[in-house]
Amino acid sequence: MHCPTLKELPLPALGETGWPWTEETLPLPEIMHGSSRWPRITIVTPSLNQGRFIEETIRSVLLQGYPNLEYIIIDGGSTDQTLEIIKKYERWLTYWVSEPDKGQSQAVNIGFTHASGQILAYINSDDVYTSGAFAKVAGCLSEDSKSDVLAGRCAVLADGLEKRIFEPGWPEDLSFFLRKTFSSTFAQPASFWTKDVYDQVGGFDESLHYCFDREFFLKIGLVGHVPSIVPHLLARFREHPNSKSMLQTIKFHEESIVILNRYAVACGIPDREERAIAKRMRDEIGYLQVFNRWRQEGRVAAWCRFLSMILNSPLLLKERKILGQARRLLLFREKAVAELQ
Asked: Is residue 218 a contact partner of residue 176, using CB atoms and an 8 Å limit?
């Protein structure tokens, strides 16, 4: 598919200006260089009730001016305005569906079963690509390139403002991916890979729902691929109160333990260190569960959870933040609990 022009797309949402609402990427020529065609890029967007943001995501894909694009949306059965927005743009979509699925990782895999692109990526329905991103990616991952995986810079947005830039990198030691819960070395929205690599590692693990992208990149590293790191700003990641990463921190820790147990040996982590890392993660889960219990059931229930945590790990009382948590349980008013973390 040729990317549509700004004039071909529906009018922008009321009051929206700039990229990708009233600005577009100029169309690229049919031929990349010499007699080579631009490699086909397939983008998948998994979606569920992100009607507030998905139109901006869709437009950031379609307005790339790229001459060989597939765009696929796998919606999990949204009940907000998402389907209305998707239907506005369906003539430019290679495939879309809206039906219940088993989660984001499965949705992405389903999307790639419909893909014929040489280069693959997925972008969530609340993130956006920057103008001209695909041309930069194609230049690095074309058939005559030695690269199979690419990562670029990614801006982090909060309340519509650019909060920081996530600078990409790649660790010398792959155990880096296992030692901490949040240990990505580059931002997922600004990453692309070839179909050969995706097939080689078996795609995304559908039993994981929070750390599946980190596990995917770890698998890529374990089979010997090293991403090309490029200095280009390729995407923008949106932080907002309903984003998965802010609501489900405990789940990230739990899945990090699963990944640790699965790959510790392959990454050269000794048994003793593996147990120590897992314990730190479980202790952090306990700490967070105290606050969750306070929110859901009140101070007394939170105290019971706190005491249970200390009985299981008495040495936690030496940690400053645990003592701080006890102080808050004693002194803070109930309505202040939402701000404790």
From this structure: no
CA gap 313, 234 in Å, rounded: 44
Task: Classify each residue of 142-171 as buried b or exposed e, where b means 16 or more C-beta atoms within 10 Å of its C-beta.
Answer: beeeebbbbbbbbbebeeeeeeeebebebe
The one-character DSSP state at 233 is E
Mean local confidence (pLDDT), 106-116? 97
DSSP 107: H
Answer for the pair 62, 126: CB distance below 8 angstroms, yes or no: no
pLDDT digits (tens, 9 = 90+) for 182-232: 777 889 999 999 999 999 999 999 999 999 999 999 999 999 999 999 999
- Average of per-residue pLDDT values in the chain: 91
Domain ranges across the chain: 31-240, 270-339
CA 46 to chain centre: 11
Phi, psi of 228 (to 5 degrees): -80, 125
Helix 249-263 with 271-297: angle, nearest 10 deg:
160
Q: How far apart are the C-alpha atoms of 135 and 29, rounded to whole Å?
A: 11
pLDDT of residue 244: 47
Mean pLDDT of 293-317: 91
Write out the H or E segment, with its range, that includes residue 232.
Answer: strand 228-239
User: φ and ψ at 50, to 5 degrees?
Assistant: -115, 40
Q: What is the mean pLDDT of residues 271-295?
A: 92
CB neighbourhood size of 245 (10 A): 12
Q: Across 138-227, where does the E strand assignment appear? A: 149-158, 161-166, 191-194
Task: Tell me the one-letter amino acid at 162.
Answer: E
Q: Which CATH architecture has domain 31-240?
A: Alpha-Beta Complex (3.90)
Q: Are residues 198 and 120 in contact, defined by beta-carbon separation less than 8 angstroms?
A: yes
Cβ partners under 8 Å of residue 189, min gap 6: 123, 124, 127, 129, 154, 234, 235, 236, 237
Three-state secondary-structure class, residue 145: coil
Cis preceding linkage at 20, omega within 30: yes
Return the number of other C-beta atoms located less than 10 Å from residue 338's C-beta: 10
Residues sharing a CB contact under 8 Å with residue 255, sequence separation 6 or more, in sequence order? 208, 209, 210, 211
Partners of 284 in beta bridges: none
